[in-house]
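Reader question, answered in our methods column.
A reader sent in the components of a multi-part assembly and asked whether the whole thing could be modeled at once rather than chain by chain. We filled in our standard form and ran it. Here is what they sent:
COMPLEX SIZE: two components
ENTRIES:
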Amino acid sequence: MSSSKGDVASKTPLRLGVAGLGTVGAGLAILLRDNADIITKRAGRPIEITAVAARDKTRDRGIDLSALTWHSNAVDLASDPNVDVVVELIGGSEGTARSLVEAALKAGKAVVTANKALLAVHGDSLARLSAANNAPLLFEAAVAGGIPAIKTVREGLAADRLLSIGGILNGTCNYILTAMRETGRDFSDVLAEAQELGYAEADPSTDVDGIDAAHKLTILASLAFGQPVEFDSVHVEGIRCIGALDLTFARTLGYRIKLLGLARQSERGVEARVAPCLVPEATPIAQVDGVFNAVIAEGTFVGRLMVEGRGAGAGPTASAVAADIIDIARGNTVPVWGTDVTTLKATQSRPASEWHGAFYLRLSVADRAGVIADITAILRDCGVSLSSMIQHPSAKQEQNVPLVLVTHPTDESAMQAARQRIAALDVVSAEPVLIRIENF
Amino acid sequence: MSSSKGDVASKTPLRLGVAGLGTVGAGLAILLRDNADIITKRAGRPIEITAVAARDKTRDRGIDLSALTWHSNAVDLASDPNVDVVVELIGGSEGTARSLVEAALKAGKAVVTANKALLAVHGDSLARLSAANNAPLLFEAAVAGGIPAIKTVREGLAADRLLSIGGILNGTCNYILTAMRETGRDFSDVLAEAQELGYAEADPSTDVDGIDAAHKLTILASLAFGQPVEFDSVHVEGIRCIGALDLTFARTLGYRIKLLGLARQSERGVEARVAPCLVPEATPIAQVDGVFNAVIAEGTFVGRLMVEGRGAGAGPTASAVAADIIDIARGNTVPVWGTDVTTLKATQSRPASEWHGAFYLRLSVADRAGVIADITAILRDCGVSLSSMIQHPSAKQEQNVPLVLVTHPTDESAMQAARQRIAALDVVSAEPVLIRIENF
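And here is the structure of the entire assembly that came back:
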């Protein structure tokens, strides 16, 4: 990119090549058309799509793009002489998306992408490619949709040392957990409904198993702590294990259940993890419901900061992509991880077993004498101290009843050991549900 | 500023001249010392204070600044050849602060300021001075302390057309209203306590009368709508009129009371206003308590976005000031109002009488027959329709009892006419308290 501040008054358009014309790609084209007046003023020059790459030229996308150059191979956008900026909206950490982004950076072209998987898995090498070719790589839309979370962390909080970063990073899971809480229905019921409404994919595993949130957390942690975090080292749990009962018990205990991505930095290093958590009802994060996302950062000087908004959808995502394009038009870009990449060294997250915190444990136990004594003896032997317990008498004289235990803060390794021993008891009939409690 | 992207590896420090060494100035010096490692990496070069201007050289500020150049006249920082960037932390829309900022911009030096009054009152002329001299003027700390609200609006949401902007912009008022709600005490009591705790100034009028929030709202609205809004045209009400009774009634009705700055853009133009408002208890803004600030923006594509954090204090404010300095070191600056200033024309806020919305009206009325009939007749005659009413019987057989009326959405002019006629009734003993209801 050779745009400089002196160009502001010129009218040479910044030319985009857009790969992928799904919801977000079409949304971007519509946004650039509808907001052309303000975008031109803020970018200092017109921004126009000159070339696209998508499978189906004939599909109705709500905007006529037939006059543009169509590439059957998206990677060709990188060598199209009429493309200044490549916008990658294909998705996926490998394949065409990766080839296109690498080819564009190598060609010295600026790249804007919404691809969280690509940045989480290959961010380190892409950052080096971007620096080596002096080709900016921007990815605001990769985390939390329309919320400028990356700009907030990388620029807005650039002067502070961040201690933690994270939040509600997957709208599908938050929608499902919110609907389960509000309706008392079970996971599979609500998932099916979310799929019908378009809030969940036909194959929901990337969302409900926490992978998508882990991609986003990896990016946020890398930015916040100034070193690329290796995606494979991030501990990931999804929400399939959460039952309607858990949401009811959480409420009784004064909590809500949220799938949190959470990364901390301490003298021991970086700890990053995605897992369902109980959060106190009165905290701001507990109030973030439905498809909304929220990112919380905590710094030594700035204290705690929360940003909340729409984490997905054509409009919010297109807004984030176009904001990146305006930054490129202005010549205002920042290295991928906020600092000179040659000084950076990728780091691994510490294992989850090293975490420390309080736990919620739900068991299905036989409704007979001595059960609680056996279970509490195991907890005592493992050094886990109990804070409270809920046992409802069996209303229907069922054989098994739920038993909920809440612990004081303890080492995760101790708690996992206790859980394993408890699960092996004859009187415990189903897989125990273990959920962390976070005062986040 | 001549910094360019190519300089990143060089070690030439960016030299600051800091005017004003109160809490924020000293906090900035401590931040730059404690976080020097990360700031140098993110800025691409060291950042150091070379000169200062403050009244008392001997005061203990928690950091030794005696070796720096001290100017007895702050304006001299603008001509100090060892100063690249002037940091103005004196405050006030006139006097030394204004002279210094103008002199620095005229000298072609970048300026960073936390001065909301200066930007709100003189932002238009300062923007022109900044553009004419190619001298960036950054003011992230002027709005919402450590929250990067300005960056969020001016860059993060640059691609979208914003419909509204506003929020809880004054921590002192929010602290007072929160404490009044939690303790049931009256305004003057809680204000005295806030003054003791350092949350309110000895002369609290700038805060409690809404002026400070109006300064910040003026800046946000100017950014959001891409045209400078004239500060004098913004409607301003403070919180002195709010009684402990109002917080109790608000709770009964399912609301909380917040001092909101709120600006909207429509075909009619810009409407900007600061006033205490009832907000539904379940909304995110209602949950923002104590000294916290929150900014909500709504755009056509991005939807609704909220940022929440510490709106004041040495650490958060210093973090915002230093983030601006890093942007300058990187050469990543944006025009004051986000676009070429020569195309901008200052605008006035539409008068408050043109607003439309629901109202809460608390009266102190004689406890006798016919009172309600008289009052509701006036409302009917003015075209104001009632939604609900609370009248508690006088417990102590007092002469006057509170009567609370909640209206359906109505024109503000109609409501004000009704209020005036109701206030003139013999049976109404004190000035009616009229509070707007906002679903914000």
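What stands out: The first strand of chain B starts at residue 14 and ends at 19. The radius of gyration of chain B is 24 Å.
Send us your own complexes using the same form.
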